[in-house]
Amino acid sequence: MLKLLYFAWLRTKIGIPEERVSVPDGVTDVADLIGWLRGRGDGYAEALANLDVVKVAVNQEYVPFTHPVVAGDEVALFPPVTGG
Amino acid sequence: MTVRVQRDDFDIGAELAALSDGDTGIGGVCSFTGLVRDLHPQAGEGPGTVRALTLEHYPGMTERQLEAIEAEARERWPLSACLIIHRYGRMEPGERIVLVACASAHREAAFDACRFIMDWLKTKAPFWKLEETGDAGQRWVDARHSDQNAADRWSELPG
Predict the structure, then answer these.
(1) Higher-confidence position of B46 and B24
(2) Is B43 a residue whose pLDDT tops 80?
(3) Residues of chain B positioned with their CB less than 8 A from the CB of A60
(4) CB contact under 8 A, A81 and B127
(5) Which chain B residues have any C-beta within 8 angstroms of a chain A C-beta?
(6) What is the rounded radius of gyration, in angstroms, for the C-alpha atoms of chain B?
């Protein structure tokens, strides 16, 4: 199981703030996960259409799309940050 | 040494006084306060456009990122004390969003560290602003290239 978190407009497009999912065996890194998520519905596909504006954190640390994901990870997907 | 992420407002005077209290080796405190403004220059919109901001954040990662940024500042400059307060939730124009304060024996370290923390915070701390506008309803604020450029000036930007 993975814990997935969505923030800002990714959250509103996908429609939920978080979920727990079991992913297929072929999903081994962040890019695989995003590809799999896009197939789950129009909201996911729209939210994840342009990866130039998607940032990823695994277990609360920024990672590239090539970072592995394993059972028990907390994976967050969100837009570039705008605080301060 | 102190990072706080909170919904409530803060008292700048009290925070700055407390930061240097009891350490007479401190020669200066440099602080930056970020405020909600009511205009949106990037969208070509003037005063009165923005009625409120709601700041969303990623509890847990936010604190970790701010602590990492503060630790990096303390590695780079000889700071006697350091404070980062960032609010979340809904705020109206004029309200305080963020306070960064750095204390050091010398002003150069205090000035530079304060600017560094703000520049990194803008591109690394997981906060997102949702603007309420008069006619358009709500919109998420886009990240700005100028903020990334400001952070890149300090180099070694991981992630």
Answers:
(1) B24
(2) no
(3) 58, 60-61, 64
(4) yes
(5) 34, 55-58, 60-61, 64, 86, 97-98, 118, 121-130, 140-143, 147, 158-159
(6) 16
**CB-CB under 8 Å, A82 with B58:** no
**Among partner residues A53, A57, A83, which is closest to B127 by beta-carbon distance?**
A83
Which amino acid type is present at position A58? V
Mean pLDDT of the B124-145 span:
90
Interface size A-B, in CB pairs within 8 Å, comes to 75
Q: Is the dihedral of CA B94, B100, B101, B106 positive or negative?
A: negative
Cα separation, B1 vs B82, whole angstroms? 5
Q: What is the ipTM of this complex?
A: 0.95
Contact B134, B68 (CB under 8 A): no
Work out the angle at residue A64's Cα, subtended by the Cα atoms of residues B158 and B122, and round it to the nearest 5 degrees: 45
Q: Which of B120, B119, B100 is nearest to B110 (CA)?
A: B100
Separation between Cα atoms, residue B141 and residue B139, nearest integer Å: 6
Tally of CA atoms within 13 A in the half-sphere of B135 that contains its CB: 1
